[in-house]
Amino acid sequence: MKEKVIIESITYDLQYFFTNKGIVKISLDDNENTNILEYSLDNFILGLNILKENLQTKFDMGLINENEYVFSARKYVYKTIDKITSKHNISFVNEWETKFGKNLLFINENTDRTDLRKIFNTSWEGVKTLFKNKIVDTLLNEQSTKSRSWLQWGWDNIKSTISKAFSCPKGGNYIDCFMEGLRTIATSFLGVTVLTGVSFIPAIGQIPNVVIFGALLIYDLYKMMAGKQYSVSDIVVDIVSLLAPAIAGRVGNLTKGLTSFYGLGKIAGSGALGTFIQSLSKGLGNLATIIGKTVGYFSSKLGIKWLGDMAKSANQGLTKITTDIAAGQKAANVEPKKSEKAKSAEELLKNVPESWKKYPCVALSKNVVQKKTSDGTIVYEGGGFVWFDNGKKINPKTEEVSEYSCTPEGKVKSVETKTFEDGSLMGGLMSSLVGGLKKPSISPAQIERVQSCLGLSIDGKFSKALQEKMKTEGYGEELTQPTYEKIMKDCGAAPIGGAQSSGGFARDI
């Protein structure tokens, strides 16, 4: 009986599946004659190419640092030689070091980092040349047990270094496990922006989006039409990753918690959700084509038939989504009759800061005075409290924090009183009322990167908590561009907005 193909892992650049039988390229090219490339000695140079490409992708994503990136070729050569234990080992090493490895000796003394990629490419071309002209031929001639053992090690090393594995045991829920695993891998590390970033890497393009998110869209639409538990947000991310991947992160966050596309239609405006709906209406034909091509790929390349069965209801699901969204938009555009009092309140709210419109009982009160903290945060002071736009207020005399909300009648409703254990007040906002925080000279997006590297909650604001964390880690109290670049370097992440920004890409949130 012919052995079935089982997908075991996927490469970091989302370009190849590793299976139990060999490597399968993620491609919609019908002219490709070979479906599966076996883990053989003849195909080993291809494996080295895939290894090199994915190490570059990991570096671009900020998953490995400069030293791991630049010295990866040398590390692989010495690991290989250690496994071969051939009589030619010394000559192999000497040849590689003489022709290629010597360039690495000066890298730590070189302050110009612009040629890192050139050195990386040159050293890996040297590895491939060494294997092609020396090591592979030698092993083919020897055909020893040690050689076969090395070949197994070689492929295992490649797979473990550049792929994310699936862990789904055969059973009743295998399909669900596999598809959710594929979703997790495709949106891991930096969220769905990983896919967006990969899409802009030269010579890769949109093929991973089509195959991977095409499969996820089929699966999610099938669940919706079959009456199974499904996620509106997952379907939205599937569609937007196929049609407009640059806004995938933002739309995914905006649709979390939605339970219907009717509800999506009601809240959709002119922002990211509006862009999504426009892309959907214009791209329905493209999505239908993608569904067909995805089914063809999984069927012909991998022998997976169940995706085709799911696809039978996918086009019906797309029609239902557009109908439900249109109904929601229509309902949102029907203005209910309002009392003069309500209209008057709306007029007053036009002059209220955007972040305060959900707390009109404070912002419209005649008993408070609007103030601005040193970091630009708008607060109100009055009635014995300082009021914040997150539903909290502080008593300046007792340093107690309590929560409040606004009733439908426009009254203030207080909740409980508490003091922060570390003595801080609202993450340092109170202290910024009286000074102590110097405005940073970097952008909110860069502040988010700093907060991520230092393990803090991400909001893009320079708070007392961030300042204290910087002091603890030895970076001082002021967040300047040089301080930002030092934190990024220590964190192993590519900075944005600075002199070293060419290799990185910002989160799209």
Description of the molecule:
By secondary structure, the chain is of the alpha+beta class. It has four domains: 39-165; 174-275 and 317-333, no CATH class; 340-432, no CATH class; 443-500, no CATH class. Helices cover 51% and strands 9% of the residues. The chain has 21 helices and ten strands. The protein has helices at residues 44-60, 66-70, 72-84, 89-99, 116-142, 145-162, 174-186, 193-199, 207-225, 232-243, 248-254, 261-267, 272-302, 306-311, 314-333, 340-349, 360-363, 429-433, 444-453, 464-472, 481-491; strands at residues 7-11, 16-19, 23-25, 163-165, 369-372, 378-382, 385-387, 392-395, 400-406, 412-418. Strands 5-6-7-8-9-10 form a six-stranded antiparallel sheet. Strands 3-2-1-4 form a four-stranded antiparallel sheet. A hairpin with a 4-residue loop joins strand 8 and strand 9. The longest helix has 31 residues, at 272-302. The protein is flat. The two termini are 49 Å apart. The model is unreliable at 105-111, 200-205, 419-436 and 498-509 (pLDDT under 50).
Question: What's the short version?
Answer:
With 509 residues, this protein is α+β, with helices and mostly antiparallel strands. It is built from 21 helices and 10 strands.
Largest sheet: 6 strands, antiparallel
Q: What structural class do helix, strand and pairing data support?
A: alpha+beta
Low-confidence stretches: 105-111, 200-205, 419-436, 498-509
Q: What's the number of extended β-strand segments? A: 10
Helix proportion: 40-55%
**Roughly how many Å is the radius of gyration?**
29 Å
Average pLDDT rating: 78
Strand numbers in spatial order across the main sheet:
5-6-7-8-9-10
